[in-house]
Amino acid sequence: MGFIEKTLGVVSPGWAAARAKNRLKLQAYDAALPSRTQKTRREGRSADTAVFAAGTSLREQGRWLDENHDLVIGLLDKLEDRVIGAHGIHVEPQPLDLEGNLHADFAGQLSALWAEWSIRPEVTGMFTRPEAERLLLRSALRDGEVFTQLIRGPVAGLQHSTSVPFSLEMLEADFVPMNLNSTAGQQVRQGIIVNAWGRPTGYKVYKNHPASLSGFSTDLKTIGADNMLHLAMRKRLHQLRGISLLHGVIPRLADIKDYEESERVAARISAALGFYIKRGDAASLDGEAEYSEPGNSRHYDIAPGMIYDDLKPGEDLGMVESNRPNVHLYEFRNGQMRAVAAGTRGSYSSIARDYNGTYSSQRQELVESFEGYNVLQQWFVGQHSRPVYRSWLAMALNNISIPPEVDRTSLYNALYLGPVMPWIDPVKEAAAWKAIVRGGAGTEAEWTRARGKSPQEVKRQRIRETEYNKEHGLVFDSDAANDKGATPDATNNEPDNTKSSKNDD
Hints:
It contains 16 helices and eleven strands. By secondary structure, it is an alpha+beta fold. The relative contact order is 0.11.
């Protein structure tokens, strides 16, 4: 106990003991103590307060980088590829019959309706479902959040694009005002209406984009939480609005861009430099005045292999040497991109397009990075794909008849499949899957889904192929039934070595 604690102990022993205890706690954690070489920066604000202060700025910076920085464009493109893919999140309906088996016919009917709706699922009619999903994911990752209004049934001025009266209205984060807060009547926090438990019950939405060419409008409408999906990147508990995925790497990305631009400019300047003429002391110069008079400066057109022999007394010819481009730029840039990948759930190889390394090292990186992609994929499915499909199915069931043998409690069962981990070496990957299936540790359907295909569709195609081949007498290695080994006739035609040996005897 120090001098101050001893002095306080005379007046208030409890206070003195508490102060001494807190001093010991601070001494036990060096990271809590500021020093000359360590800056102790702390965050004591609530999640909503922190997002309110920085969310809009980070969103706008992320958009600028997505428009102007090649690394950010490539990063977001690759996340679209790995999380959504070219064909979007594949939804495979799984309605069951009363015996617990898949009702294939009804599942096929739902799949056909879903495929038709996926052609034009949103109100503008500009995007297919995979295109819309990629845009929604990109907006959510770059801006931190994106909103989707579910439009059900007849709506004035809107014509649904398919037979199912259900459409999506995709809204950028700007449509929900960040600075709208109120405690009078409805409790509104950052444009979201919440109840006493903090659960969103509605959203305040601008009727037009606040930065549209038609001019800013303050007209707001209220959309109930049942009709609105909020895909948000949340990093803390009790956080309503999302934060950009780039929030931790924006300074590094800006530094990389500035540094690369400086190196490019320096390399261009170095490439434009030629030679210089070095003069001696003043005593060796003849007619110094002629150099200083206007119009007497010497200019030369440099050409490959030229010989210059017009030096005056006391002059020397020198070449401008440059250390550009910087030989360490590649190594430094790659190190920075590894840090960017670590802060964005990406992989260095995909961002840098650097695929050097052995099969084992590439696969190790791919396996580790794909776990991050799977996290984002499940987040997207849970917050967007599943509620969209269930809302669509609720509307579709009004227009189709449900077979009596279908278990109605299983109507909303479905599998949600996104892009799978690509194969680095197809031969090794196929051999591994074959061993898993033959060993009973996996199924053919699991193998098919791992390739991003529908097991039912693959089976149907295989049945059609094998039946067609048998009908027309076609034999291929793809049908294992054709591989029957040596026939009995072939065995009988072989020479009998045993009889020959006996005759020789």
